[in-house]
Specification:
Length: 123
């Protein structure tokens, strides 16, 4: 079971704006914050997401093949989250739509640091 996911950032203010907007649409907010990281989620709830300046002081980098998937309530929320991501500095990696079989509906985007995210729902 995943407790939380941490993504590196090179610009905490830019990440805060991006993830604050995503978290607000998902009905949550910041649950922990220091000068070097912010974590979004609900204590005792599902897995949270954190943006952090790398502990080793080296530049943050994007993992090839790494992606964080966020579960949406329905297809309309998938669309809203995709739109929010792009309006807050994210870039498109695949517009909302059905993917494969079994009712999987998803959108893909990257945060301002290049970390790949997905929002999805299962019909």
């Amino acid at each position: 079971m995943i407790g939380y996911v941490t993504l590196g950032t090179t610009d905490m203010a830019r990440s805060a704006k991006f993830y604050d907007a995503i978290a607000k649409e998902m009905g949550t907010g910041r649950m922990m914050e220091t000068d070097t990281y912010i974590a979004w989620g609900t204590p005792g709830g599902s897995a949270g997401v954190a943006a952090t300046l790398p502990y080793d002081g080296q530049p943050a980098s994007v993992g090839n093949g790494t992606m964080v998937a966020l579960e949406a309530k329905d297809q309309d929320q998938v669309q809203r989250l995709y739109d929010i991501a792009l309006a807050n500095g994210g870039t498109d990696e695949g517009a909302p739509g059905p993917r494969g079989e079994g009712g999987f509906y998803a959108a893909y985007f990257r945060d301002p640091d290049g970390n790949k995210l997905n929002v999805f729902t299962m019909a």
